[in-house]
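Hi everyone, sorry if this is the wrong subforum. Our group has a chain we'd like a structural model of before ordering constructs, and none of us has done structure prediction before. Sequence below.
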Amino acid sequence: MRSERPLVEALQKFVEKEPHSLHVPGHKNGLLSSLPKELKKALIYDVTELSGLDDFHHPEEAIDEAQKLLAETYGADRSFFLVNGSTVGNLAMVYVVCKQGDTILVQRNAHKSVFHAIELVGAKPVYLAPQWDEHMKAAGAVPFETIKEALEQHPEAKGLILTSPTYYGMVAKDLKEQIELCHEHHIPVLVDEAHGAHFTASKRFPTSALDLGADIVVQSAHKTLPAMTMASFMHVKSKLVSDRRLNHYLRMLQSSSPSYPLLASLDDARHYISKYKESDVVYCLEKRNQWIEALESIPELKIIEADDPLKVCIRMAGYTGMELKLAMEENLLYPELADIDQVLLVLPLLKHGEVYPYADIRIRMKNAVTQLKMKKGSEQPQMGKQYKMASIITPNATFAEIGSMEKEWIPYMRAMDRVAGSMLIPYPPGIPLFVPGEKITVSKLSQLEELLAINASFQGDHRLEERLIQVLK
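Answer:
Right subforum, don't worry. Here is the predicted structure as tokens:
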């Protein structure tokens, strides 16, 4: 009889034998750990590649079987477990299609890991601007015409990198046509589908890019499936991309000491989605819709629904998203992120009969609104302001060139038309505002001012506490 969770079962059988550790890791099955007792108990599963537990980088037993089940579940030619997050998947897929000096087309509102991958490979990016999504008040998908124009301008391109769904849960309505157009030019399509691992569960969710013909798809199983943080999937289904080359780069880029709790959680998450029934999605969406109706009874709130039913934004007139986020946190409600207009929530993918504390969340949300109304709101910038940018952007300098160029720190208000010298990343969502080599526009500076006004957090090289940013000299 075939195992339903081969890696989970292999790990359970191993631990049940009560083995003694004469190997790494040094906590010795948790014996030497002083972590809180709940965490310490789990360390008996934090083992290494021992007999009976397979070899992550050359799987032939439980891991191999688990990854084959993953490919079956998602309809891929080959699938991989990722223990270094979707970040390592994004790195590997760029390496597999590009080499130094190659041109690659990239959706501009991509995750920072995509830009890091391009920098490491030494490829030449051409950025494709997304459309403004007026409903979500956020950058959405790249228009078909922009991709068509980019392919005409850059027939030498080695690939197209798209992000679908966006962080806010929006997908291109013509994604299938976009992929087919690229394939007509023999250009592979690589999709960061980090937030869409659950799409395969039902037609009530958007269709996965893999089912629409994408060559490589990366999914963060930990974002919407019940996997541990950093646990991700990678799928290949292509005549243009070699799964062997992809595996070659994954062996180099992934840890040589994989976490077995992470691997087991991937096996478990795959099993969860493979057993997800239509009755489950009906139940899940029914509970979600009832909760949204309950929230809509709070007159101060506006609920915004995305293409992905698991993504919901909440706005409160007269207050920024950051102010609403702080009020929620005072009531122990923690949203995914806040922007100038709203907070973004990620809802659970419930199965039939599973209970989630929606009623209590509604009560706490009402309390947060009541408390916030007692405070004066900020001078809020215009809601949903659209920031225009050229549809196709070729950077003034490549990442490789920037590495050897002189840089200087200047007040950001004097940076218009200068070239960014370092990456500046509002986090979350991790989409760079400034990318090295890109010209700094009035639009970008206006966005920066708004983010500073709501005390957004930033990653990257910056001195924003002094109002300074780095540019090419």
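For your construct planning: The chain has 15 helices and 18 strands. The longest strand covers residues 311-316.
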